[in-house]
Amino acid sequence: MKYLINYLIDFTVLVFLYIFVFFRRWRTQGRDRLLVNTLMYAYLSLVLYFTMMPVVVSIPFMLNHPYTPMNLVPFIDVSLGRGDFLRQVFLNVIMTLPFGFLFPLTQNKRAKLGMTVFSCFCMSLGIELLQPFFDRSSDITDLITNVAGGVLGYGLYVIFKPVTFWILAQLKKPH
User: Fold this and answer.
1) In 10 A of CB 106, how many CB atoms?
2) Beta carbons of 79 and 28 less than 8 angstroms apart
3) What burial letters (b/e) apply to 44-70, b meaning 16+ CB within 10 Å?
4) Which among 51, 36, 43 has a CA at the least distance from the CA of 161?
5) Going by C-beta distance under 8 Å and a sequence separation of 6 or more, which residues neighbour residue 98?
6) Is the pTM of this model over 0.70?
7) Contact in structure between 48 and 55 (CB atoms under 8 Å)
8) Tens-place pLDDT, residues 53-97
9) What does the buried/exposed string (b/e) look like for 157-169 if buried means 16 or more CB atoms within 10 Å of the residue's CB?
10) What is the rounded CA–CA span in Å between residue 52 and residue 127?
11) Which of 7, 11, 26, 107 is deepest in the core (most CB within 10 A)?
């Protein structure tokens, strides 16, 4: 029950932040922008849930344990056959697919592959560097597979771009 309350606090903060900061700003930009930005916000909230939560109640205790540096040997679990490495690799790729798809849509100007990959890299690196503060492990393999997921997501964006832009154009039309 204690852990549930900790997560509830984080989600409450995220909901209030959305309602009182982002929603007000995004709704003035049109329904298409509101949809895309809300989807990205919801996606990033889920990434936060799976990678670092609970955050708010953990902040006072972030420095109460030793910082364990990132494992810098790529795919060491795979090469040593440790744990459920295939599942971890698959989940890390899947986790950032939506980023690769949604990030270009959140940009007012056209986002190219390079900008999307760089942004995905920065997001993943930030997560990996912060995870040890929340008593979680950090691994270069996660960074590599997250970026691969972002690239695949961008590929899906390119494939579905005509359909996506048609849907967004429908949202711009007055009803």
Assistant:
1) 15
2) no
3) ebebbeebbbbbeebeeeeeeeeeeeb
4) 36
5) 39, 43, 153
6) yes
7) yes
8) 999 988 888 888 888 888 899 988 877 877 788 899 999 999 999
9) beeeeeebeeebe
10) 8
11) 26
- Whether omega before 104 lies within 30 degrees of 0, making that bond cis, reads no
Distance CA 9, CA 54 (A): 8
- List the structure tokens of 136: 């979680």
With the CA atoms of 46, 52, 57 and 62 taken in that order, what torsion angle do they form, in degrees rounded to the nearest 10?
Answer: -160
Residue 56 makes CB contacts below 8 A (sequence gap 6+) with 6, 9, 10, 13
